[in-house]
Predict the structure.
Amino acid sequence: MSMGQTEATHIPELDAATLGEVVIIGGGCYGTFYATQLAEAKRRGKATYTRLLIVDRDPSCQFTRDMAPSDDRTLVVKDWTEFLDSYLGAAARRSADEASAAEIVPSPLMPHLMYEWLVRRAKVRWPGREIETRPLARGPGTPYDTAAPDGTRYVSFADWLCPTHCIEPALCPAIRAPRTWEMSDTLGVLRGELDGDRPTAGPVLFVCRHRVFAVGTFSVAAVCAGDAVVAEAGQGGSEVDVLVGTVSACHGAVNLLHLGAL
């Protein structure tokens, strides 16, 4: 995720990243960039993966024009929602070890897809129960904090333009000073504050970390674990909220999932 773009960030040499199946959200400019970077990392012995699944509803998206066919990458022509319902639903039925062998590469311009999947899962789990997105009563106190019409809150510690494809190192390349913040910790504090007002579980966080050549991922296992947290929070039948975020170290998309009383 990035608040903006300036010069490209220097990518340091890394040990080889071991990835299983990799799902790339979108076959446009961002998804094509990620697929290209992963293919180059594999060629140079800096990453291993079984295959790339590039998900886009356009069969003629940029990925098909910019990358030659290969046995280890496939364009999946589906709407993101349709694909995730099938793919993540199957992953949730597998063992944690199997699910951990898959990674998701989010797009910085995608809606809060992981949260939307949790909402759909909750509605299937508790038909007839009140399940809705509620506005956050307060924000995390970050410099950038804005609410979208769908209720998603986009937050960031950056009030500057971030370098393109920044890997969020310990020394921030934008301000040339140590990065003293971590969005996961901040949302943990926010969850505690919200819980002081009304019962709030979580936070359920899908944390995107740099893996190789400016490509960040979070595991499919983490998504399944987040679904399990929602299931546990609503198991007692009491009214409860769940704080959910897809985040990196610096930026995040945050929602509050409300489960009404059974």
About this structure: Residues 207 and 247 are 5 Å apart (CA to CA). The longest strand covers residues 251-259. The two ends are 37 Å apart (CA to CA). Confidence is low (pLDDT under 50) at residues 1-13.
